[in-house]
Specification:
The chain has a single domain, classed as TIM Barrel, CATH 3.20.20.370. The radius of gyration is 16 Å and the shape is globular. Helix 5 (124-127) links the parallel strand 4 (109-110) and strand 5 (131-132). With 197 residues, it is of the alpha/beta class. The protein has helices at residues 30-39, 50-55, 57-65, 85-103, 124-127, 148-156, 173-190; strands at residues 17-23, 45-48, 69-72, 109-110, 131-132, 163-167, 193-195. It binds zinc ion. Residues 23-24, 73, 77, 113 line the site of zinc ion.
Length: 197
């Protein structure tokens, strides 16, 4: 489990739905994930890195055009628990401004890299108009030590109300697509839908 903060969103109240969140994009392989999501009729929330949005602006816009939601994962992908308050403040503010200038959308949800934020800084997201979002399910699509069958098993354990976190990365997108496919089957079998944040 991630570090817990009062007021942070780790699950959603609606137990008939699952929130699918995808960190670290946009990337040169985001479109593969968008196709995988569409094949399963899943709508997700992409927590974009500000720096990556500068490198892949059209992909950032495509995520919105294809009816997914976007949120911020900060500007630099660094451990914010080790940063001074003004550094965290600047990174978050810069990410919001960047995402807005690239997509026209002002993000309202923030997930710091690795889900880490110093407890003394946990008021910062709200000062930027953002809700702090963590997760309740992390299958490990980014971790090559987790084999594909185990990934599928972990996705099978996702339940209504969960916030699942996946990743948008060129090195692991095929594993993420496996998770998305398994998630689609699980959702249909359990009569669950997906919601964006
Ligand atoms: Zn990340």
């Amino acid at each position: 489990m991630p570090m817990l903060y009062p007021g942070a969103l780790c699950r959603i109240a609606d137990t008939t739905a699952v929130a699918v969140t995808i960190d670290d994009g946009p990337s040169k392989t985001s479109e593969n994930l968008l196709d995988a999501l569409e094949a399963e009729s899943i709508k997700g929330t992409f927590f974009l890195s500000g720096r990556a949005a500068i490198s892949h602006p059209e992909t950032a816009r495509m995520i919105l055009q294809r009816d997914h939601a976007i949120a911020t994962h900060g500007f630099m992908h660094e451990d914010m628990a080790r940063k001074k308050r003004d550094e965290v403040d600047e990174d978050l503010g810069k990410s919001l401004a960047t995402i807005e200038s690239v997509t026209g959308f002002h993000a309202k949800h923030y997930r710091p890299p690795y889900g880490r934020l110093h407890p003394a800084h946990r008021d910062l997201p709200a000062l930027h108009g953002c809700r702090l979002v963590l997760w309740s399910a992390m299958p490990g699509d980014f971790d090559p030590r987790v084999d594909v069958d185990e990934l599928r098993r972990r996705v099978e354990h996702v339940r209504g109300g969960d916030i699942i976190v996946l990743h948008d990365h060129p090195q692991s997108w095929e594993r993420t697509a496996v998770c998305i496919s398994a998630l689609g089957s699980m959702l249909r079998r359990n009569g669950l839908r997906t919601v964006t944040l």
